[in-house]
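## Example pair
The file below holds two records. Each record gives the amino-acid sequence first, followed by its structure token line.
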Amino acid sequence: MKKYIFLFLFLFALLISCSEEEAIEEAPKNVVEVGNPTIEKPQSNTPFIPSPPKEETPPEPDPNATERSLTTGLPCTPEAKVRRPIAVMYNNNKVSFPQDAISNADIVYECDAEGGVTRLMAIFSDWENLSSIGSVRSARDYFISISQSHGAIFVNAGGSPKAYEKLKGERVDYVDGVNMYTIPTNTFYRDSDRIKNNGYEHSMMTDGSRLMTAVKKLGYALKYRDGITTPYSFNQEFKENEGKTAVSVTLPHSSYITVRFQWDAASKKYLKYSFDQPHTDGLNSKQLAFENVVVLFVGEQVLDTEGRLKLDLTSGGNGYYISGGKYTEIKWTRKGDNAPFVLTENGEEISLNPGKTHITLFNKNQSKKVTIK
């Protein structure tokens, strides 16, 4: 009899376990990497023509916007100014496109990853109402380092061993779609259309409401801590750059991906192109556009047989600040691993123009391949 009772209890526990896995909506368990990137070769090297941005009616000014955003320098309410941002890891190989909600990001960072691909981290200050975010991808330690300079809650789906050392060793506030079991089981989900059209590893999604529920359950602060110093200062109004002409900026990260920014004088923004195509948002089909483009040259070193990289984010170096159709040569410094970047020109800290910013960390050994025309 005891034998049958034991067998019954075992089958009952197995049934409960299967039900829990289904409730996670296909989110994988007990893995670090969701999978290796699928590498595709660019289809063509044919020059592309920038598409003009659609005319948009500017929103009515908010009478309560009496402060300035710490991530855009634009007018915002006092409540919005102290709202803590999230930093989302985005997949960025071609087969994973399009990316949902990325045009809503205040700041986008792009860094090299293993295999000749790049990965993106998007900083959102207004994120609670985003209807879809993703596809969310695995973390690297250097992205976590940058996110902490913004005081952000980090959002990822798995990560490298070095990334988990940093997340757990430094007690970073993060929400993980792969190795975290203290959040609601529906915080992340697999999009069935993306599974079919993009592949399983490019299908991990979430949204603002789900993240907010998880953040509250984890007990993370929703406001900036007192005395936080965010990385960048902003001009009160758009200021003309007095540097050299920068109508087109080309960043050849590898034979797989080249990124280009094209100046659009009508909107005073740089339009982004990746893989010889406009880089657009999957939710609204908007092409990514930035008032500021920053290129920082950093040291890169291959760490292991998987090709993972170590980025030197503390030794300082050179770079470019690009805005208003012009560019200037700058230098960057950083006082510590989680400290803000400090951008200077001729020894004086620079201020960015108010609006969205794209920041590329580019291999300094390949800096001569960057072209600005």
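Second record, same layout:
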Amino acid sequence: MKSKPLYHLAQLNLSDAIADLDSPVMADFINNTDRINALAIESPGYVWSLIERPDLEKENRETVFKSKTILANLTVWENRDALFNFVYNTVHKDIMIRKKEWFKKMPKMHMVLWYVPLGHQPTITEAKEKLEYLRLNGESPIAFSFKSEFLPKDIL
């Protein structure tokens, strides 16, 4: 009998917009946001997203990153494969291909993955701490990227 997983995979991805979000330069990105978010929600393995907590998203993003142009995408997925499939095997990749139209090149690592207990909804502060850990310590079961294939058992 297969045991039920005790952990899900959280991810934070930061982007720094080249203009204010209400600028015409950002219009095509903004106009696709709802469609891509809906696709994520409908994707196999999706669990939770910060977009489900709009009360926290803007306040946390602007407070934690001290910027109105930093966008923080924070989601939780059943596992790495589910997230990978959404990112690279859906129309989401078509938006990613165009990121240079809307976002500055990030000078540091701007994406992090980590495991969270089932039912946990990570905060932007928690996610920022994981990203900083990854930047300082490199890939480990505590914080990693798609380059690594850590499993929840690796954090025990």
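Notes on the second record: The longest helix spans residues 27-42. Helices lie at 27-42, 54-65, 80-89, 92-97, 124-137.
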